[in-house]
């Protein structure tokens, strides 16, 4: 539901940062107006956490909280529209949300997973007609997860075998997780660049699914278990040795520094950015 108490129309625009005084000294010290942010999926697990994190930041202001059935296009057509939209909804609708924002030339930060190359290509095509607009799609905003993916890609060419195991709460809609897909893609790219072939696997008899999903040639296994939040292991094997890289999110607060970083940076990153690693400077 749209939060009318803080909607673009009723929130009083920039009045909280506009000083009554005409003193040069005072106006020079005035902080910039907070970035105006709308949250899609605001009533969900991530949406609630995101609204709270934005509320706690002096330089960011939540101006709308949207859920299923709320009119995003109308919000973006308002005079006093948000600067940035954050999407934590469901895989079926996130592409449409992003295309609506790009058409209105409003920056978007996307945490929702379930993206594939075709959907990302549609965003790139839309952005070609919206110069200056930024979209950040990040499968995982937690630092430990981003570093797990980064280190896994560094290590992958040095091992014969590599497989990914992701473990999540059972209310999750998509499998494998967006993080696991992103991890597998990074591993596959690093191995291909180094001329390393597929992981050895002699399996000729297997029950469907027993060897997990094939993501870019990397086996990915998905566990759903009550009590878990979000976890991933990358297993790398050589004769006589194993490297395990593991990330554990015990609480969704782990995602918030990354979400706020993306909200602050998306306006200065025109085009499509996939992965928080780019915002952290881990990759160009
Ligand atoms: N990038 C990251 O770091 C992270 C990404 N995620 C991803 O974020 C997404 C959301 O996760 P989570 O918060 O746990 O899921 P939830 O199911 O808790 O929340 C999803 C929310 O989206 C709302 N919603 C559904 N359809 C629409 C719609 N058409 N328009 C607007 N809102 C809609 C739901 O409303 P209703 O209740 O009415 O259905 C619900 O409030 C998932 O894809 C998940 O994988 C999760 C954690 C971290
Ligand atoms: O649904 C979740 O919870 C999560 N989804 C993201 C994913 O699919 O990778 C990020 C994190 O793993 C939590």
From TrEMBL:
Name under which the protein is recorded: 4-hydroxy-tetrahydrodipicolinate reductase
Cellular component terms (Gene Ontology): cytosol
Keyword Amino-acid biosynthesis attached: yes
Enzyme class name: oxidoreductase
Subcellular location: Cytoplasm
Catalyzed reactions: (S)-2,3,4,5-tetrahydrodipicolinate + NAD(+) + H2O = (2S,4S)-4-hydroxy-2,3,4,5-tetrahydrodipicolinate + NADH + H(+); (S)-2,3,4,5-tetrahydrodipicolinate + NADP(+) + H2O = (2S,4S)-4-hydroxy-2,3,4,5-tetrahydrodipicolinate + NADPH + H(+)
GO process annotations (BP): diaminopimelate biosynthetic process; lysine biosynthetic process via diaminopimelate
Organism: Cellulomonas marina
E.C. numbers: 1.17.1.8
Binding, (S)-2,3,4,5-tetrahydrodipicolinate: 169, 178-179
Superkingdom, natural source: Bacteria
């Amino acid at each position: 539901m749209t939060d009318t108490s803080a909607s673009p129309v009723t929130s009083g625009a920039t009045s909280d940062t506009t000083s009554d005084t005409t003193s040069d000294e005072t106006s020079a010290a005035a902080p910039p107006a907070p970035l105006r942010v709308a949250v899609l999926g605001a009533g969900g697990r991530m949406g609630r956490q995101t609204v709270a994190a934005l509320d706690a930041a002096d330089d960011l202001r939540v101006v709308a909280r949207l859920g299923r059935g709320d009119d995003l296009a109308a919000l973006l057509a308002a005079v006093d529209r948000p600067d940035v939209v954050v999407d934590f909804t469901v895989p079926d609708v996130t592409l449409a949300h992003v295309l609506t924002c790009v058409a209105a030339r409003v920056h978007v930060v996307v945490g929702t997973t379930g993206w594939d190359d075709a959907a990302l290509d549609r965003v790139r095509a839309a952005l070609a007609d919206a110069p200056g607009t930024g979209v950040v799609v990040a499968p995982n905003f937690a630092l430990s997860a981003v570093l797990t993916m980064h280190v896994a890609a560094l290590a992958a060419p040095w091992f014969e075998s590599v497989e990914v195991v992701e473990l999540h709460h059972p209310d999750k809609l998509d499998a494998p997780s967006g993080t696991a897909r992103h991890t597998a893609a990074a591993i596959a790219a690093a191995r291909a660049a180094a001329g390393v072939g597929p992981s050895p696997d002699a399996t000729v008899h297997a029950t469907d699914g027993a060897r997990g999903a094939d993501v870019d040639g990397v086996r990915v296994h998905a566990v759903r278990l009550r009590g878990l939040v979000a976890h991933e292991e990358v297993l790398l094997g050589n004769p006589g040795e194993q490297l395990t890289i593991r990330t554990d999110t015990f609480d969704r607060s782990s995602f918030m520094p990354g979400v706020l970083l993306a909200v602050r940076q998306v306006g200065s990153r025109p085009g499509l950015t996939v992965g928080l690693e780019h915002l952290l400077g881990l990759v160009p």
